[in-house]
Amino acid sequence: MSPKSFSIKKWSQDDQPREKLRNKGARLLSNAELLAILIGSGNRQESAVGLSKRILLSVENNLQSLSKVSLAQFMTFKGIGEAKAIKIEAAMELSRRSQEGAPKLYDKITDSASVFAIMHPILGHLKHEEFWVLYLNNSNKVLAKTQLSKGGMTATIVDVRLMLKEALEQSATCLVLAHNHPSGSLVASVSDKQITQKLKRAAESLDIKVLDHLIVAEKAYFSFADESVL
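The structure assignment produced for this chain is given below.
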């Protein structure tokens, strides 16, 4: 078969991703077809859809895992250069931001699940570790959420003074701590427990209570409060 036969332009319009989206709507397109629209073309051996299927297969068709693929990793696929890799990365970032900016089901903390609902869109996909704090009022309504620190794959440095400064500025009476484990592990390390106690003692000096500390992974979480280790 001639390499040119792989060109999407030679397909019927009903099978061409762009035309299919225009005529039938984006909801009817597969993940591979949507990705094919982003990359525009494949290579001499496969169409954009075929290449997209191979990329998705490499992450077991998991879009969360796809969002963790680096530019360099995308560029190992034949037919994906820097420009196409950047397009994919940009689309993934827009998706993340839309989740973060969407109206939250929970604006009031009622349990660990409500914390996870707020923090998972922010932390669940990350390839590095970040530490965040939710600042609450007497009714456990979220006043603000801020990133306290950003670290590497295995550790992050938390500034207690910044947390307390923000708590006072927000007039917060309660705090919820949250950080992610890029490895997916839901086991609280010794350092996780130590920093929790350090922040808890610091907050108590200002009569501010730490209600919980969540370790967030891609699909699940660990709650210090639920496990009675706070």
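Interim note for the steering committee: Residues 1-5 have pLDDT under 50 and may be disordered. The two ends are 64 Å apart (CA to CA).
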